[in-house]
Structure formats: C-alpha cells, structure tokens
Amino acid sequence: MESILSKDEIKQFELAKMATEISCCDWSLLEKVALVCRILFEAGHDSGLSGQISARVNNAEFITQSLGVGFDEVSVSNLLTVSSELNVVSGKGMPNPANRFHSWIYAARPDVNCIVHTHPIYTAALSMLEVPLIVGHTDSCVLFDEVNFLPKWDGIPVGNSEGETITKALGSKKALLLGHHGLVTVARNVEEACILALQFERAARLQLMAMSAGQIVPIESTPAAEAHDWLLQENRVNATFSYYARRALRVDSSCLS
Ligand SMILES: [Zn+2]
Q1: What is the pTM of this model?
Q2: Distance in Å, CA 9 to ligand 1 centroid
Q3: Ligand 1 centre distance from Cα of residue 210 (Å)
C-alpha cells in the first residue's frame, strides 16, 4: 500500500467513483412502476390482487396498477394514472380502492414520490406476532431507524380513516409494519421504494429464522447508521434496482410494452 487512507477518505473516493462509473437506468416513470411490480412478484410479494404500487406524477395525480391485474401481469399499457380521489385520468379500468391511503401519504409527505404496499409471506407471518420488525443485519440497514409499527388498526385500508391512521403511524419514517397485514415503504423515488420493500421482506425472514434459533442481539447503532447511509446512496440504489429489473426482464420483457 502506497498510503494509508482513513475509512472516511476511502468512502469519499469510492462514492466519487460510483457517481461516474455505475450506469443507471433511464426508464420512464411508467416503465419503472411496471418493473417494480414484476420485481416484487418475483420476490414473493404477490398476494392475489392485494397490494398496490404507486408513483407520484404531480401533486394531484399518481400512477398505479389497475384492480384485477396481478403484479406479474402489470405492463406499461395497463397502468393507470389516477387523481387523489382515485378518479381515472388515463388508462382503462379502476384502481384498487385501498389506494386511498396513498393519497393521504402523498398529501402529508412531499418528500415521498413512490409508495409500495404488499403482503409478502414472511412480513405477513411476522405481522401476526404483533412484534416490531428488527433490523439486525447489515443488508437490512437500509431500514435502520426507518420502520414504525402499527400493531392494531382497522384494516382493510379503503376508508379515509385508515388513510389518516396509516399516515400518522408512518410519521416521517420510510417504512411501516401493519399488524396482521403487511408492509408499507415510501421513498424519494421508485428505485428506493423497491429496494426498501425487498429488504423489508428479507429482514422479516431473517428475523423469524433468528427468533426460531435464539435471542436476537441488537445491532450497534453507529455501524448500522453508517451502513444505512452507504447502502442508500442514490447511485447504489439505482444500480441495485437495475440489476433486479434485468432479472425481471429476463423472465418476461413484456412489462415494458
Ligand atoms: Zn394490504
């Protein structure tokens, strides 16, 4: 080694390289929403017709899937653009009435441009125990100090009261575990919301496996916070999303049409 750099110096050096060397996606917003649906389906987030993905178009409209279309059937051509009152602005069909709580979150959180709500199997199982999600592994640290917990609430989320309840429970965080139900992740863009949802389900799976083997030891906050910031670098998130998108497109590229 010619010189001994500090960890902070190495991080800054590598971040600068990532900014120029990692190629990112150039998909449209509609294409990204379709890709998220396919990515999450491949990762076990389907639950029949339950769950919604949405992406903000502007302060009055968002993109979401049409009710009756499964995550593995979503494509650019069958997505909807709807108003905050869930009236269809473009596309054919109707949105899931449970999209109503998305409108509440978008109104309360101007920093949020994408919402994922799903019932993947390990998250659903964990939600039945009425215990919070434990972020205890480095990979899960994208969610460190980002997850709130609502053990009891009035599901199904089709009313305005559930919109208020979920938005209040989420607060300023990026994720929420809904008791006896599933997960919500929110983010600055589609790519980040997707990665958070994938890691949420993985964290729930890890937690259940670890709980069955022993007592989970809390992760230390300083390295966890460092991992959080490192893993959520925009270029890294975009590159991770691109990887998952390529995997989904190898299964079926029709989602882009
Ligand atoms: Zn749900």
Answers
A1: 0.94
A2: 44
A3: 26
